[in-house]
Every structure is written in C-alpha cells, then in structure tokens.
Amino acid sequence: MGTPVNIIVGSHVWIEDPEEAWLDGEVTEIKGRDATITTSNGKTIVADISSIYPRDTEAPPAGVDDMTKLAYLHEPGVLHNLACRFALNEIYTYTGNILIAVNPFRRLPHLYDVHMMEQYKGAAFGELSPHLFAVADTCYRAMINEQGSQSILVSGESGAGKTETTKMLMRYLAFMGGRSAGSEGRTVEQQVLESNPVLEAFGNAKTVKNNNSSRFGKFVEIQFDKHGKISGAAVRTYLLERSRVCQVSDPERNYHCFYMLCSAPPEDVKKYKLGDPRTFHYLNQTNCYEVANVDDAREYLETRNAMDIVGISQDEQDAIFSIVAAILHIGNIDFVKGKEADSSKLKDDKSLYHLRTAADLLMCDEKALEDSLCKRVIVTPDGNITKPLDPDLAVLSRDALAKTVYSKLFDWIVDKINSSIGQDPNAASLIGVLDIYGFESFKINSFEQLCINLTNEKLQQHFNQHVFKMEQEEYTREEINWSYVEFVDNQDVLDLIEKKPGGIIALLDEACMFPKSTHETFAQKMYQTYKAHKRFSKPKLARTAFTINHYAGDVTYQADHFLDKNKDYVVAEHQALLDASKCPFVANLFPPLPEETSKQSKFPSIGTRFKQQLQALMETLNTTEPHYIRCVKPNTVLKPGIFENFNVLNQLRCGGVLEAIRISCAGYPTKRTFDEFLDRFGMLAPDVLDGSDEKSACVSILDRMGLKGYQIGKTKVFLRAGQMAELDARRAEILANAVRRIQRQIRTYLARKEFITLRRATIHLQKLWRAQLARKIYEHMRKEAASIRIQKNVRAHRARTFYTNLQASAKAIQTGMRAMAARNEYRYRRRTKAATVIQTRWRRYHSLSAYKQHKIATLALQCLWRARTARKELRKLKMAARETGALKEAKDKLEKRVEELTWRLEFEKHLRLDLEEAKGQEIAKLQGSLNEMQGQLDEAHAAIIHEKEAAKLAIEQAPPVIKEVPVVDNTKLELLKNQNDELENELSELKKKMEEFENKCSELEKESKARAIEAEESHLKTMKLQDTIERLELNLSNLESENQVLRQQALDASTNEDLSEELKILKSKIAELESENELLRKQPAIVEQVANPERILPQVKSFENGHQTEEEPQMTKESGPPISLLTTQRPLTDRQQENHDVLIKCLTEDKRFDETRPVAACVVYKSLLQWRSFEAEKTTIFDRIIHTIRSSIESQDNITDLAYWLSTTSTLLYLLQNTLKASNTTKISSQRNRTSPATLFGRMALGFRSSSVGMGMSSGYSGMVGKGNDQSKVEAKYPALLFKQHLTAYVEKIYGLIRDSVKKEIGPFLNLCIQAPRSIRARSIRGSSKNIHLSIVAKQQSSNIHWQSIVNKLDQTLGIMTENHVPPVFTRKIFSQVFSFINVQLFNSLLLRRECCSFSNGEYVKAGLQELEQWCLKASDQFAGSSWDELRHIRQAVGFLVSHQKAQKSSDEITNELCPMLSIPQIYRIGTMFLDDKYGTQGLSSDVIGRMRALMAEDSISMPNNTFLLDVDSSIPFSMEEIFGSLSAIHLSNMDPPPLLRQRSDFHFLLQETQTETA
C-alpha cells in the first residue's frame, strides 16, 4: 500500500520491528527508495519506502469500534486498534460484520448479565458497543424476519475463549427464545446449556495453551418454531482426540472426568475403587494433577447435576463413571514376557488386582478380558488361529481397548443428550453455533493437525466467500462497478488434501488397505504424487515429513503414525468381550456388527469419516446465513493485561482476519460517507463546498487530486488501496502551508506589537520630561503668588486683631451689667417659687396620708368580702362534686384499687372541707370583730369631725373685735388619741391573725392541689393502660380475623384459576400473620398484669358527653348479641339483583366527578354500607364489582380511562380502609370473662361497647370519612376483607399499567435523545450572517424536537392525572419512576455507545435535561416530587462530558466531587470512550485511568458480579398504608346522585342524605 507518492518527509508511518512487530515513527528523510524513520521509542531506522505503511494521526486514542472505519486498513493499523481497545478492557471489536473477541483472561460478569442482554435485545447491529450479544441478536432477528436458518461460527486457537463465547451465545439465544418445553419441568434451553458441562467433563482437558481446551469440535443446532421459541436442539461432535486417553505430555492433563472421579465423595471413590490420581498410569505421565481455581470435587457434583438436567438417569450415570473408573484400572495393567515365545502375561499381583477391578466394573469375564489383551484370534479359511502377543503388543492392545471404550462412551453421551433434548422435525428454522478448533501448527504435527487444518481450510474458504459476498453486496447496494475485483481462493489446498481420487486422505486410505504398507511407503507415495504441486513440498533430509502451504502459513506434518491413527476398527476380541458384558449399558456400547459391514471393508477410515462429517457440516452451513466470531488469545502465559503483538498477528493470520483484509484491499478498502469525506478532505478544494451537493463535491475533490480508479456510490466514496494515503499527503501539504502562513502572520503580529510597545514607551518618556519642566515653572510662579498673599493676610490679621480686642472689651462690660440685674431677678423668683413648693408639698402630704389610710381600710374590707364570696362558691362546687360520688362509689364496689383510690380522694376532700369550714368560722368571727372596730373607728371620726365643725361655727359667730385666742381641749384630744391608738393596735392584731389564717389556707390549698394532681396522674395512667389494652386486643382480633380470611382464601385459591398465582404470596402472608398473632397474644397478658379496672373510664366520659340521651334506647336494645344481627342474611331477591345491576351500570357509565370526588366510588360505598354488605357472610356484589373493574382495565391502552379507574379504586379503597375492621367477637367474649357486668356501671360500659356497630353505621353517613377510630368502624366479614384485598391488588395493577404505558411511549424518543443529530454542514464560511443564524436556529429546533416530544408527553400525562383527580401521591410516584426509567435508558445507552461520549453530544443531552428540569419546576413538588433527583446518574455523566477540567483532576476529585453517584467502572468506561470533538482537549489522564483500572481489578475480586449498567425499577414503590396516610379526609356530603339512581326508590337514601345535609 505504501508508494513514494504517499510517503513524504514528516509523514507518520508504521515500520516493521523484529521485537514489537510494528513500531510507529515519523519520516525524517527520503533518499530515493530509502526512508529514514525516527520511531516513538527513539530508534532511527532506514527502510525501503515500499515496506512502510501510513499511520492515521487522527484516529481516536481509544481505537474505533469497527475497523472498517480505519483510514488505513492494513496489518499494523488493525493490530494497533486491537491493542488500544484491549488496554481499556474493550475486548470486542467489529471488522464489518465480523466480531473479534480478545480473551481478557479474567471474569467480566457485568458484560454478560441479564441487564446487558436487555440492552442488546432488538438493538440494530453496530448501534451499541461491539458485543457477542449483538451478533447473537442479529442472528436471531434475521431468523425471525427472513424465516431462514442462521449459523454463528466461532473460531480461534486453543485458549482464545471459544468455549466460553459459545456458552454465552447459547445463553443469549435461550434468553431470547426460551420457554418450557421439556419433560419433568426441564426446559429445552436448560438442557442445551447444561449439556456444556457434561461435554466439557468428557471432552475437555488442560493443555499448554488452555486450562479448559476442547479436544473435539462441536456444532450445536438450536431449533426454533414459527414463533421464535426454542423447540429442539442437537449437538454434533467432530474428531475427539482419542490418543489423549493413553498418552499425555507434560504439563498437560487427561480429560477432566478422570480427575473429577478421583475427587468424588468418599462413598463414590470407595465404590469405584479409586484413589490418588498419581497412582494411575494414564494420569501420572505428567506432573500436572490440578488446575488453578478449579475444584474437581465441586465440578464432579455439578457435572452430576448437569447430567440430571439433560436426562441421564442415575443408573446410567453410575454405569458411565464405572466405565471411566474401569479405563483407569485398565491403564494400570502391566505385562511381562510369558513362558512361550512372543507371549505375555500379567506382571504382578497389582496388575491382577486392577484386571479384576476392571472386569468387575465392566461386568465381564476376568479370564476373557485377560485373553483379549494378551492374545489375538486370526480367522482363516481353515479355522481360527490364536496368536499370543508380546508385552509391547499387549500394551498397544490395552491402550486400544481404553481408547475404543472411551470413544464409544463419548459418542453415547452425545447421542443421549440429543435424544433427551429432542429434535423438532417441524422446526421452522435453526441457529447453529460452531465451536471448532482453530488452525494448529506445532513443532510436531500429526494426523489430528491435518484434519483440524483441513476443517479450517474449509471454513476459511466459506469465510472468504462470505466476506467477498458482503463486499459484492455493498458494491451492489451502492451501485458501483465491481466486475474487476479479484478474489483469491484456496480450493487447490482442499483438493490436495481431500480430493478423491488423488488427495492425501485418499492415498492414506489406499495405504491402509495394504497390510504391508508402512509410513515410509506412504510418504514416498505422496512425494511422487505431489512433487509438482505448488502447495506441497518435502523438507530436506526428511523421510516421512511433508509440508503443506495453508492459507495461514506452511505446516510440516510427520507421517509416522498416520496409518495407525486413520484406522478406526474395533478388535474382534474386544468387541466380543464387551458385547457379552452383563451390564446392559456396556453391552449397548458394543452392539454386534452386521456381517455385510465386515465384508465391505476390513476397517473404517477415520479420515474418510471425518471428511464426510465435514462435508455434511459445510452443507449445513451453506444453507444458513453465517455470522463470524474470531477469538484471539492475547498472550501465551494466560494472564490478564498482556498483549503480545506477534502472537496476536499470527492468530489474526490463522483466523483469516488478515485474509479478509486482503480481500477488502483487493477491492476498495477505504469507504467513507460523503459527509465524512468532506469533513476530512474538504480543505483540498474549499470552493466546491459552496452551492453544490455532497456527491458532486466529492467527485470534484477527487478529480482535482488526479486520482483514478475510485468509485462514487449512492452514499459513499470508495477508494482503492493507497489513495487514502495520497489524499492524506495532499491534505498534510495544505495543512503545512496553512501552518507556515499562520506562523508568518503570528511573527508579523509579534514584531508589530514590539514596535508599538517601543513607540509608546518613547512618547511616555517625552511626556514625563515635559511634565517635569512645567512643574518647575509652576513652582516658581506659585512661590511668588504665595509671598504676595502672605503680606496681604498679615496686614489683615493685625487690623482684625485690634478690632476684635476692642469689641470684646465692650461686650464684657455689657455682660457684667446684664448679669448682675439678671441675678437679682433670679434670686427673687427663686424665693417665691420655694415658698410655693413648700406649701404645695405640705398640702399634698396631708391629703395623701388621709387617702392612704382610707384606701388601706377599703382594700382590707374588699379582700375579706371577696374571700367570703369565693368560699361560698367553692362550697357550692364541692357540693356539686359530691353529687358525682355515686358513680364513683358504684365503681369502687367493682374494683378494689379504684375503691382505695376514691376513698383516699374523698378522705382528703373531707379534710379539706373541714379545714375550710373552720377557716370560714374563724374568718366570720374576725370579720365581726373587724366590723365592730370599724364602727367604733367611724364613730370616733364622726365625733372629731363634729367637734371641728362646732369649733369653726363658734369662731365664725364670735365678734371680730374679740381677739382670737386659741383654746385647746387637751383632755378631749388625748382621749381621742388614746382611743385611736387602741383601735390601731386592734387593727394590727387583726391583720396579723388574717395573715396567719391566709398562710394556713394557702398551705392547705397547696396540699389539696398536690393530692388532686396525684389522683389525676393515677387516673391518667389507668386511662393509658386501658387504651393500650383495648388497642392491642383490637389488633389481635383484626389480625386473627384477617388470618382466618387469608386461610380461607388460600383454601379457595386451589380451585380458583384466577387466584392460583397468588397462593404462594398468601401462604407467606399467613405465616407472617401467625407469627404476629403469637406476639400479640403474649403482649396483652403482660399489659393486663399492670392494667387496672379504670380502663372503662374513657368510654364513660365519651358516653356522657355526646350520646347519653340519643343512644340509651339503642344501647339497651343492642346490649345483647349485636353481631348476630349482621351475620344473618337471607338470599338475594330479584329486587336486590336489580339493585346490584343498576349499581354496576352506574359504576361503568357514570364517570363524573363531584368537586374532586369520583361519584361512582362514593355511590358504591354508600350503597354497600346501606345494604350492610360488609357484614354479610355471603354476597355476590363484591365479585361483580371486581369483575367490572377487571374487564374495564384489561387490554386498555388509554391512559385517560386507566387514570379514572385509579382515582375511583383508590377512593373506594380509602373509604373501606376507614370503615372496615375485622370481627371483634373474640375480644368481647374475653372482656366479658374479665369484667362482670353485674353493676349498673358495668352494664352501661358493656352496652356502649357492644353498640359500636350501630355507631359505625351512623358514622358512615355523618358527611365525612376521615381517620375513624375503632368505635366508628364496621366489623367486616370474610367477603368484605377479600374484596378489600382484591381492590388493593387492582390499585397496584392500574398504577403499573399507567407507568408502563408512559414508559412505552417515551422509550422511542430516548433512543433519539441520547445522540445529537448530525450537524448541518456550513457550505461556506463566507455566507451571510443571516443565513448562518437561520441555520443555527434550524439546527437547534431540529435537535430539541425529541426532547420536546418527551416534555409534551409528560404534560399530557400530568393533565390526564389532574383531570381525573388522581391523588397526587400516585402522580408523584409515577413521574418518579418514569424519570428513573429515563435515567437508566439514557445512562445505559451512553455507556454502550462510543459516539455518544463526546463533548458536543454532552452539550446536546445537557440542553435536553434542562428541558426536563424546567418541566419539574413548572409541575411543582406536588406532582413532580423528587423526579429531578432520579436523573442524577445521567446528569453527572453529562457534567463529566462537558467539563473542561477532567485532565487536571485526580481520581478522588472525580469520584467524590464531579461524579459521586457513579461507580469506578462507569467513570472508567465513559472516560475511556470520551472524545472532545469540539475543542480537541484531552480526557482523563493516564494516571487516573491506571488508578481506576487497579481499583476495578480489586473490586472484581471482592464483587465479581459488579455491573456498570443500571437496572430499571419496575416495583410498586408504595404501600397502601403510605397512601392512606397521605390522603385527606373525603367529604360525602352535598353529593348529587346519578340520574339513573334518582329514579329508583331503593336508592332514595342517597336523596334523603342530601336533603338532610342541605337542611
């Protein structure tokens, strides 16, 4: 592909290297045909220019998913792409429709779990990341759509992972088409999958290259019916390596089954007389007895289990392992020379023991077994001649017997598996999975390698034809001329090996026919026959070796054992011995041969039989559409993380991948769509991009470059080999010219920038110097102006100072004079004011003293009077309280503890009353004395006033000339003073006594209050204990009733087909309820020991407060057996049947809402309550309602109807929840035993409790149904509880239908939302800004249309839920799960699509998520709830994609700050697939990737099943208790009944309720 035109100086190329296979480097010099290359590791290599290949510098660092997308499709490009992907744990890569799988040598269970199968189910090929599930899904879809058989061909060398790949393929096909079709509950797919462990146990062994190498070829035919379900299967095997039974080279092992049997349980080991594998000759030829990470004992048990599943009975299993054990014992039989010449006998007793053991296990004659090993019978016309065998021939006979028995046993197992699984003769199509050995080339190659390589040559021819066919189909689809494309065929090699006559196998069969033929004669015959064949050659100095030139290289074969290995006959003595076995199983393996067969040929040829099998296989494959998986082993040490270039190249060559590349290169190896071609090479002719379509632009560019031989298809450009490199060389020249021009412009810009900076600096210096000169001139002028101003200011200061002094003196004189006059005036006024203040204070003091004395006396009187009034009121209250003592005394007679407490309380009350009476008497006495003293005091005051008035009158009447002489009656005054003092002393003593009395009263009141508080606390405790006992007893009775209901339901479910699926759930629930019942039976016993008889008090209070007058007649009427009235129900009459029909019709037809209440639910609830249906033992109305709901929602795709039924059923269920309770008969009987209703109080309490049913009835029509207590509930019977459970199930089912419907409608848009649509190409950068703006707007509108569709669907769903008044809690849960579904789908698609992990795509998805965020804000928390938080995975992943700081962040910052919700494998996968297609920045640093890889390796050990995909949550995310707790009370008042019910008299109770409520 390299030509001088393509390679120039500066080109990046690939050069061959003897150590690394290929190295990348850069051409530094070209001299003629020699190019000097500097490699990436520092080497300098000179090579011929024709031996180097161009390297694509723009290839993604993580490689490409499909290698047909490589710019240069050649050997180093393919190898480098696989190595890049393997370093990132991307083990799958496409080459067109061929899958290349690199064995990681570690468990990656997250790649093969059910989540991953769900992702690839129905996905288009190439849409998601490469995976073998994609191949299997494509195969399955092609079979379904095209009604044609398919095949999947898995190839690769030993250890490449073919067997594991085949297992995973069959797992996926079983996942897609699995169903129960086997006998005894075993499914076909289970038997197909479990056939693998059985075949591996008997057909796999450890080799140098692989610990679980398949030593046979296998073709599994999985048959499907017309519905795409597995209907049958068949397993075909090819060329089991029989020689391994007797010959094992170090460090390999024999077949797994031998080691499994030696590690079997002790009873089996003893049964088969086995032991350590080191003691058996067939196993101790090598030092390898164990395989790493494999437990042979556990594998033995798993193999036994797998044999059970595939239909091998226990007797057959015992016979199989008996034969395996017998083979081991046969191998320990040794021989020595006998007495006669050329004879042999058993070596020792040990050999005899093993001979007897083998004979016992095979159930044949011991002597006959020995003779069959040591002698041979020759049949002649004259009779039979017995010929003894020497020890060497006896050993060969022994080994031949072991190989024959094992081969027959393996064939029987395969036949048994096929017959057990069963083939479908009416199968519509099949999918075949071929697990065949890869091309083999060892130091010593024998007959097995020739057959294996013949198979690979056949498959390679088939592969080449398929690849060529695919190329032709693409050329035809693109309508290009491809008639001159050449194709190299390997038919000549196939003719050399298998042609008849003249082929190697034919010559081998011919040589085997002649008894005197040897290996030398056979080799010489080949040398003579094929000496002129270009594919055949003879090595120098070789006697029996020959070399064949295969498609993968030359292989030299040793013909030493070809004759022996080609013979497949059974020794007649062995045949007769085993046919005569007493074990039917062993005799079955060796049926007598027909005489015709023995006459036709003395031996059957293995080569011919294998060729026939291979021909049948190829005929089968030719009738199918093939799909290829090429498995590659990255290294020979079988360790993870190692990629050996030479080893992988050799496998790619042997697997035909490079041959497919050669076929592609023979035509048009480079294919690019028009837009990709213009993106890469549009710069070669920018002018053609403006105004022309893509196809014309591509043609113009290719013509301008002078290329010939290319082809233009309908959507792609097809380039011949080397043309891509030539275009890249021209592109590199243009880019180099552009770089030089940019550099020139940059240098010009830098020089001009430096000049401008220098000029600015010069101008700045000039400006500074001129400024300095101006500052000096200014300073001189400023000083001169300052001196003149100083002189002026000094003169002004002197004049101002003189004037100021003169003015101050004048003011001082004036101030002094005015101050003296003012002081005199002030002194006069001050004296006047002081006199006035003294007079005022004296008069005020005198009046205040008199007022205080009067006020104190008044307050004292008021306090005494109020105290007296309060005591009278207290006595009245106590008298009223005493009247309530009758009930308490009656209660005290019933319960001792209440009596004690009441007696104590009464005693304290009497003490308090006595104290209060004594206090009242004493207060009365003191009040009397106080009144007397107050009267005396008033009399004294009155006398004083009278005397003062008489004195004033005498003074006024005295003549004015008479000089007033003050006369003072001292005696009278002293007398009054003495009396006043005595009164004051008595008053003070009285006040002291009052204070003492008040203190005593306060102490008594405090003590009384404390005792009252104690009594109240004890009362509250008894009430709490009473409530606890009643609540526990109620729960116990409810649970017991539900338990009985569930038991009855479980019994009925056995005959009810509709409830058969719920039987297991009901049984588990019954067990839970029984355990809860046991706990509750224990709890009341504990509480009752603490409880006291005061538990009846709360009911008495409620009785007194609300229902004393109204409920007394009902109480006495129903105090007997109230429940018996509800349990009796007569059969439904015709009128009742009509009512039921009308109610059902109303339920289906009347879909109105009254405010937010569904009318139908409320009407049904009221009707059932009125008819007392909840209390009936038998009724059909519940079944009819459930049937109506079921028929209405079945096959219902309309969300509107489902939303209506969700609202209706949830409302009806809520009403039932707050109305129904389980039967309370057990609780009442237990209470009657504990509490005897002998007294009036006891009868009243028991009657009130027994009337709870009637009260529950009345509460049903009270206008509102809220959180009712137990007393207001109806005791429901079994049909009502069953109806409630069915209603709960249908609420959950309708919720799931709505949720799944929304998911189903949003799902198609999510596949379009995860990847941004292809950008609108700007035809010319010189276009007008208006056109550019219009194109941007059009692009945004087209890209947002899918997100807008999702938002519109959410709006539509929200509108429907709101219109049907669905409780907001359901709406929140639905949207929360829908957003979780969006999160899972988008995130999983992001992880599985490399093209989605780009910067521009991250921006696109981020813009779409903002649309969803706006919707959540608009919908509010009432309906959206936490929906936005459900998108946290995709939000953080998109944030990671659009972050510009990824390369600078450490692994801890990424995992803890940027993406805290994402796991290490998820971040690792996104980071390795990331591509910045907008700015070209780097993704995660290599250190971070290495750190994450190490963490993932550690996690894979601790958590082997850790997956990076998210799982869709399809559960019901709520419980009915949670729903009931979030709903508000439903008002049943003011509801207009449907017109259909208004016309019927039986439903007039609905009208009466409405009229009563209106009144």
Automatic annotation (TrEMBL):
Q: Name one GO cellular component term.
A: cytoplasm
Q: Which InterPro entries match?
A: Dilute_dom, IQ_motif_EF-hand-BS, Kinesin_motor_dom_sf, Myosin_head_motor_dom-like, MyosinXI_CBD, MYSc_Myo11, P-loop_NTPase, SH3_Myosin
Annotated ATP binding sites: G156, E157, S158, G159, A160, G161, K162, T163
Q: Which GO terms describe its biological process?
A: actin filament organization; actin filament-based movement
What SMART domains does this protein map onto?
A: DIL (SM01132), IQ (SM00015), MYSc (SM00242)
Q: Where is the signal peptide?
A: none
Q: Where is this region: Actin-binding?
A: 614-636
Q: Name the domain of life this protein comes from.
A: Eukaryota
Q: Gene3D superfamilies recorded for this chain?
A: 1.10.10.820, 1.20.5.190, 1.20.58.530, 3.30.70.1590, Kinesin motor domain (3.40.850.10), Myosin VI head, motor domain, U50 subdomain (1.20.120.720)
- Name residues in a coiled coil: 877-943, 973-1083
Dilute domain sequence ranges: 1183-1498
The segment(s) forming the Myosin N-terminal SH3-like domain are: 8-57
Domain Myosin motor as annotated: residue spans? 62-732
Keywords on record: Actin-binding, ATP-binding, Calmodulin-binding, Coiled coil, Motor protein, Myosin, Nucleotide-binding, Repeat
**Which Pfam family is an annotated match for this chain, by its short name?**
Myosin_head
This entry's Gene Ontology molecular function terms read: actin filament binding; ATP binding; calmodulin binding; microfilament motor activity
Q: Which family, according to UniProt? A: Belongs to the TRAFAC class myosin-kinesin ATPase superfamily. Myosin family. Plant myosin class XI subfamily.
- Its protein name is Myosin-12
